Each structure stands twice: as C-alpha cells, then as structure tokens.
Recover the amino acids of this structure.
C-alpha cells in the first residue's frame, strides 16, 4: 500500500513542481500524511496488532519522508539518514547485530528521514505560490499501480529469501544513478546520429550497457548472500526497466507488465500446480521481455530524448 501511494504521490508532486516548489510542497503536505495513515491502517488490518503493524507504520513514515526528500531535491539528506541502517544491512551476511541495534537502527533512520523531510517541506512552503491548474489525478494512477506491483513482487521475494531483498535494496542507489547515466548516453547518441536507424542502434546499446552495469553487481550480491541469482536478476531487471520508462513518461506500458507479473506470482501458487518461486520466475521473465520491447520501441525514438 505504501509503495503504491508513494509512487503516485511522487509523480503528482513532480508534476506540481513544474509550477513551483510551493505547489509541490502543498501536494506533499496533504498527500504524505494521508499515505502514512492509509498504509498504517492497511497494515493493522492485515497483520493485526503487534510487531508487523508497527513495522508497517515505520515503513510508511520512511517511504513518505524519502519520497518527499527526493521530489524536493534533497537526496544528500536522505543518504545521510540511511547511513546507519545501510551499514548494518551490508554487514548482516557476516555479522548479526544484537536485538537492540536491529530495532534501534531502522527507528533511527525513520526519525532522521522524517526530521529531514519536515525541514525540506518547511523550506518549500516558504517559496512564493504560483497559481495555476493542477494536473488530473488519474495521470498518477499507473505510477501507483506500478508501486503496488513492485511492492508485491519484492514482498514475495523477501518471503522466500530475505537476504535477496537486502541486496535489491542496496542496488537501488546504483540503479538511480544509471537511470541518470542513460539519459546522458541517449542525448550523446542523439547528437552523434545522422539517421533514425543509427540512433535506435545507439540508444539500444546505451540501454544494454546501463542494464548490464546494474545487473552484474546484483548478480554478485546474490551469489554473496546465497540467493537465487536468476530470480533476483529478473526482479531487478523488471524494476529497473520500468523505472527507466517511467522516468521518460511511459506510464501505462511500463506498469502493465509489472502488474501482470505480480498477478502471476500471486495467483499461480494458489492453484497448487506451481511453487511460489517458480511463479515469480515465470511472471518476471514475461515482464522483462515485454518491458524490453516497450523500451526499445519508445526510447529508440529521437523525440523521446529531445
């Protein structure tokens, strides 16, 4: 729930950012607390009172704070807030922290991220307002549905192999940088190409280079923690390609394959004929093929990068 809300809210806040920081801040001021409440209540209804519900509250607060900081351009503050828990997570395959640290470090990260988000939001709201019509909310729907699908797939992977999710989480930093790097390579390809076919080939090559640069460390991480390399690579590829397409405004064609993969991973095991890991493998394989086709088609057009 919190993944879906955060993705949709981030898209809407980015859309409002075009009108000014004040408008984006107002969107986040209303949307972030609503998302925390909705996700926390959902977690309470699903898990019941207890540790799981408290974890849902903490995760909802963190995702709301992280989304706010990213939209408002305070990535360094978010990175600083994440340092304690990232260091502990990276060391977990070799060192098991005591119970107090396992509870305290995530809580510290949530508190630091929330404090940083409050500071960033206060600064944004001080900016001069710029009146103008707000974009329609339905435009943010596919981004929210992608978040729902990504959360479902990641939760399934975490249930099967908890360390795989740690590796996937740590890979999101390089993934974001490679999204940015692909933009630079695509623009360079646009300047170097003299024909549409030449640009398509260069854009496809840039996509392959950035994709491999993301997946190779992910594969090494899977081997290091003893996770299923194939499943983790496919899940990582699904998330990375979908995020890349969404960065270029390709909303529904990137969300639909992810939703289909999540539905397959959830529904097939209920039939009793396929195990959960196999179902996720099938769903993610189909999604990767579909997303690659969409990426080659959309990102191979010069107008997508102009």
């Amino acid at each position: 729930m919190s993944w879906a809300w955060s993705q949709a809210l981030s898209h809407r806040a980015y859309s409002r950012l075009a009108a000014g920081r004040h408008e984006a801040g107002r969107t986040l001021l209303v949307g972030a607390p609503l998302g925390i409440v909705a996700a926390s209540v959902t977690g309470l209804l699903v898990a019941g009172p207890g540790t799981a519900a408290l974890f849902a509250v903490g995760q909802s607060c963190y995702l709301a704070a992280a989304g706010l900081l990213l939209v408002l351009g305070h990535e360094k503050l978010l990175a600083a807030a994440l340092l304690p828990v990232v260091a502990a997570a990276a060391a977990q395959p070799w060192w098991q922290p005591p119970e107090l640290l396992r509870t305290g470090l995530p809580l510290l990260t949530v508190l630091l991220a929330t404090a940083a988000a409050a500071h960033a939001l206060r600064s944004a709201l001080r900016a001069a307002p710029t009146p103008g019509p707000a974009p329609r909310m339905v435009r943010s729907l596919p981004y929210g549905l992608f978040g729902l699908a990504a959360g479902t797939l990641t939760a399934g992977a975490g249930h099967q192999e908890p360390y795989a999710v740690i590796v996937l989480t740590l890979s999101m930093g390089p993934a974001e940088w490679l999204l940015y790097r692909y933009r630079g390579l695509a623009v360079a390809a646009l300047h170097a190409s003299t024909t549409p076919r030449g640009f398509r080939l260069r854009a496809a090559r840039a996509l392959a280079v950035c994709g491999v640069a993301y997946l190779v460390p992910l594969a090494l991480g899977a081997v290091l923690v003893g996770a299923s390399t194939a499943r983790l690579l496919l899940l990582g590829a699904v998330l990375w390609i979908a995020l890349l397409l969404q960065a270029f405004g390709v909303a529904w064609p990137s969300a639909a394959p992810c939703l289909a993969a999540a539905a397959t991973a959830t529904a097939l095991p209920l039939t009793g004929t396929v195990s959960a890991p196999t179902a996720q493998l099938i769903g993610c394989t189909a999604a990767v093929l579909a997303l690659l086709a969409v990426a080659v088609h959309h990102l191979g057009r010069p107008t997508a990068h102009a």
